[in-house]
Amino acid sequence: MRVPEGKSPLSSSELACLGIPKHKIPRVEAELARLNSQAELDRALLPDLARQIARQLL
Question: What's the superkingdom here (predicted)?
């Protein structure tokens, strides 16, 4: 499924369900959108990628 450019492939509610803290969700969404604009990301890998991004954020 192709996601519009500049939009995160995972919604805020999906990220919250993954356990991403509310204050980190906007930054995780922005990073996923940036990565997705460079290459279409495999949907199956997105949950782990989102968690890795969140761990790197302060």
Answer: Bacteria
Q: Output 37 or 55, whichever has higher pLDDT.
A: 55
**The two three-digit tokens of residue 39, written as one number:** 């290459």
Distance CA 3, CA 37 (A): 9
Evaluate whether residue 6 is within a structural domain: no
| Whole-number Cα distances in Å, 5 to 12, 19, 34, 38 | 17, 25, 9, 9
Mean of the pLDDT values across residues 31-56? 92
Higher per-residue confidence, 48 vs 1? 48
In a domain, 1, yes or no: no
